Amino acid sequence: MLNYKWDKxxxxxxxxxxxxxxxxxxxxxxxxxxxxxxxxxxSLLKSAVYSARIEGIxxxxxxxxxxxxxxxxxxxxxFSGGYGDKFSTKLVRDLHSAAxxxxxxxxxxxxxxxxxxxxxxxxxxxxxxxxxxxxxxxDEYSRYISGLYDSTAEKSAAAQFILExxxxxxxxxxxxxxxxxxxxxxxxxxxxKGLLMLEEYIEKHRExxxxxxxxxDDMTGFVEYFLEGVVRQANAGLERLxxxxxxxxxxxxxxxxxEILAVxxxxxxSSFDFIHRRFLSVNPKTLxxxxxxxxxxxLVRKLGVSRGAVYEKAD
Length: 315
Known about the structure:
The chain has 315 residues and is mainly α. The chain has 13 helices and 5 strands. A hairpin with a 6-residue loop joins β4 and β5. α5 packs antiparallel against α6. It is globular and about 65 Å long. Keywords: ATP-binding, Nucleotide-binding.
């Protein structure tokens, strides 16, 4: 039986109040579909990159590694509703499959060996449940999270913490835990238009993140840390919305061409290879066609010829 708890501290209660206020602010925002879509694309990319970095993977927005590209696909599917609205062990395994695609032969499969965390002295500081109990533990985990009547933010924090402790997969548990939190926040109405970027907060406060994950069953520190991250990142998202100019031409673009234009705008003098790394699932011929269309409509300029050519946004 899962035996995790957290205390309703004064700080936690105050943070929950701030989250509710922020949610009302976001819900009351006027529709700015173009601006929000642009910021959502950037935010999801950053979430993917930061989540990979937390694990020590040297990903960047300019050159996202495969780990970050996989995460980006998973975040996009979460925020498009592609995983449905029912929390389950199948969902967790699907998220692991997405995160570890072409990285691990065990993508989506539970580990088949013992696992523990060791300190520098070689002493085990946390021993995960034995692998032969994982199906049972994960079924219980699913029921436990689904049965929580606490706030969505607390539930999302608890889901991430407990998954880390069960450690159901051989690799990628941290990435999947953060995807689970994002999924719960989004499906229960606390997605903050996809601008939360909790992964950025965690990457910047990584030492504290691992510190509050240390206790074996008391989640209080982690829940407070998680809620603090929600408040800070939701406020940062509002600032980005205020600062982002409206682009009158963007509604007439196909989504992929709008995204290509955004990439070139953020990274002037982008080479074709640089742009292609952001669209690895798109056939290079199709990408060249999109770039040609953007040039024809005077939205981008091509400087140079052949492989040395670069692209910049037109004035």
